[in-house]
Amino acid sequence: xxxxxxxxxxxxxxxxxxxxxxxxxxxxxxxxxxxxxxxxxxxxxxxxxxxxxxxxxxxxxxxxxxxxxxxxxxxxxxxxxxxxxxxxxxxxxxxxxxxxxxxxxxxxxxxxxxxxxxxxxxxxxxxxxxxxxxxxxxxxxxxxxxxxxxxxxxxxxxxxxxxxxxxxxxxxxxxxxxxxxxxxxxxxxxxxxxxxxxxxxxxxxxxxxxxxxxxxxxxxxxxxxxxxxxxxxxxxxxxxxxxxxxxxxxxxxxxxxxxxxxxxxxxxxxxxxxxxxxxxxxxxxxxxxxxxxxxxxxxxxxxxxxxxxxxxxxxxxxxxxxxxxxxxxxxxxxxxxxxxxxxxxxxxxxxxxxxxxxxxxxxxxxxxxxxxxxxxxxxxxxxxxxxxxxxxxxxxxxxxxxxxxxxxxxxxxxxxxxxxxxxxxxxxxxxxxxxxxxxxxxxxxxxxxxxxxxx
Length: 455
What we know:
It is built from 13 helices and 15 strands. The protein has 2 domains: about 5-245, Beta-Lactamase (2-Layer Sandwich); about 330-455, Histidine kinase-like ATPase, C-terminal domain (Heat Shock Protein 90), CATH 3.30.565.10. Helices cover about 45% and strands about 20% of the residues. Helix 4 (about 75-100) runs antiparallel to helix 5, helix 8 packs antiparallel against helix 9 and helix 12 (about 360-380) runs antiparallel to helix 13. The relative contact order is 0.08. The protein has about 450 residues and is of the alpha+beta class.
């Protein structure tokens, strides 16, 4: 399903058109597989019941979601109402997934929607850890009495977590009376009498489980496993999306870092190689000019012109080297580098820098180039009479503001150096915003997460 169709599903209320039939598990399908008193695995019929709809978010197919069952002949009004409620709950979760909200928000919503939908007394989302423990990442109960987020248990033999982890299938416990272990003890302490746990599988890997629990004496309905499965698949989609975005951000950051390292290496090579040779040649030319006999003034003048041309070429090379990667940024940090930019600017710059320590190199480089580009644009295209630069770091964030009093009307969408700079800022997890109303100047705002060196 495309993003457009997913959003259409999230908005739709047409249950017949959007939900395919879920097979009701037969009596033989519901036969229990005993793993200790009260515990059993869901049968293949319970687990497999339901149609799947592929979800594509952020342009990538990342999962599938069961979307409910269509009404049949003879379905009661109560059943239709239940299906409508299930559709509405799935639609709300699907909306969050389509919006790309953080996985933690999806988990919390899934726990609440599942808990309310089944009239459960408690619902939890848990993640399986590498050290054979399980961690609660979301919980819900009407009275707030669910397990706290971050609670961790060892995965004990014959517990629901153990059954789900070993089989990859839903499991249930219809009685905790004689069950052993910390998880069972916690369930009894919370008054839980029965639970159903369904696996959350992300791109073929068992990630965790969603569990609904009841304090009532009667077990949870027989179709609970199949109905919860739709929500676990949406949760898996959110996890896959989050991981994909994190992987993409890390990849972009590595590319930016590699480009910066290349720039630094080229700058060092120019400074230590070609520039030094040109400086040496210039000194030799001045020495030769000084040694020219007085009776050969034209030769002396000619050597002087060559020396001046060589000096100009050297200065241009220094400017080029500075543009590739300013040495002062590596040596002195962002504050001194911005002062150099302000002095070299073609228009006056009011500079206000509040930095108490060095920032990570990628952040310093990104801020430097944003300021350099903004000052160049202010002088060449605004044209502005003055520019203002404000940089400050606090509470793990760096905030940069670059403004001018020029003509405004700047639009990065029409193509400019700001597009590449925005990509650089985004690769570091930040944002770059341009405010440029016509006739009111231009203002660039950058917000970046930072960890001050030494933290």
